[in-house]
Predict the structure.
Amino acid sequence: MVLMTLLPDCPQPYLPIDSENACIYMSSRAVALNEMEGYCASEANGGKPFNRRFSDEGISELGKNLKLSVESLFPPEVYVGITREKDGMNQPTKNWLFANNQGSVDEKLYELWTREPNMQDCGSVTYLENFKVNPFSCTDSAVFLCEKNEFPCEYSTLPFVEYHQKCLSIFPRKDNYMTAESICGQMGAHLFPYKSSNDSDSVGAAIYSSITFDGGIYAGLRKNEMGQWKYESGEEETKRWDPEDELHQDCGVYGFLKNLTIGMFTMNCDDKLRLLCEIKPEKL
């Protein structure tokens, strides 16, 4: 995790969460939950797992810093599945085709453009413009957003994760559009046909999550035999759940809600997950 600011008492690579009086570090890789203690002690410079409930202020701080961290690391352009149609003479038209045979749209009717296309023949989504689409040259290189039409949404070559009913993953290597299309296809996927602002919550969550924490950060929260969701510190969670999550799985994780604030989702406790380690400033 890239730190945007550091409290004097927080050693690198820890992140200050002032309202929790704690220095927090997000694991650089997914970890089996039975290895949490060892990971934080050895790979996180003597930390311990953060397994208690965040205050409202703390979870807000966490979300802001995660976004800043992603934006400091993440390329501003991400290919999505939209290309300019050619006519029978191979000349560009004003019609744009969505990937995976998802239809087409007239250039002037596409609601997601950041500006009117000129000679560009592809589109790339950007967090710099509220997840709208920049006209982009198909020969330029960008990371790209792949989609699978399968549920449950599972890991394969890439960690495909369900982001608000879309099974998505970002391929972190930059390539041109044709290569991006081919790579998605090799994984049984396709470039995401970004058709309307109704999908911006899925796109935003994927961009803020895919590169950094693969859809979820373990919150120290599990479902007990009574069906209650309790943190390892003993506190119960009742209100922060994503309303679309049916709570069928057994571990609680932090992720981005539709409004791109941090909320709670469920994942399988047998999966390897990102986690949070902490060091208390007064103990340094």
